[in-house]
Amino acid sequence: MAALSKGTALTAAARPLLAGKTPAKAAKAGRTGTARRARPLRAVRALGGESVVDVLTRQHRQIRLGFLRAALPGPGRRRNFDRLMRLLAVHEAAEEAHVHPVARKTLRHGRDLAARRRREEKEAKRLLVRLWRTGPHGPGYLRRLNEVRRAVGRHAAREEREELAALRRVLSPARLRMLGAEVKLAQAYAPTRPHRWANNEFTNKLAAPVLGPLDRTLDAARRRRSR
Length: 227
Ligand SMILES: [Fe+2]
Ligand SMILES: [Fe+2]
Known about the structure:
- It is built from nine helices and no strands.
- It folds into two domains: 2-45; 49-226, Four Helix Bundle (Hemerythrin (Met), subunit A) (Up-down Bundle).
- It is an all-alpha fold.
- The model is unreliable at 1-23 (pLDDT under 50).
- Helix 5 (77-106) crosses helix 8.
- It is 81% helix and 0% strand.
- It binds fe (ii) ion (FE2) (2 copies).
- One fe (ii) ion is lined by residues 92, 95, 117, 121, 155, 159.
């Protein structure tokens, strides 16, 4: 244990010297090692350097606003509906693939907590698929939109209160920023439509490389048709 603490306290430059390298080689290895370690940090900064708590809380606000916009009548309803569906799909996919697994492993009672969130997401996704099939001009659209809004609102409030607040207490600021970058990166490739069976870490990670590009192609085709 003592050896471990001593090792972790070593500076980056001292480690290769102690490993028996010459000063020149050690300097080079030190530079390379530093560069290698700096790469993920640069990636995190490039993705905004925001904590996962801030990213997800901001998206919850955007989702709440998105529900209000999607209820408005008029020619913009389709666009607002599509935006909301996309935001909900990428948001939940990233949470299921990257955030709940961390909560499960690091939080006290994390397993129960993540299971509860996943049950809520499953139910919300069932309603979301029904709303998606109804479409913004279908019969009962506003009723179904309201149904999803209530389910998603309750779920998001619990996530903020129980999961995100606990992650903020337990994880280091650097780990929170790293997770925020992971979420943003995952959302750039995630499916943009609700898929009922993609509802856990494994299925979401499996779905992303296939359904992500497919959904985006379908989205682009729909945008071209509506021009
Ligand atoms: Fe969620
Ligand atoms: Fe969420």
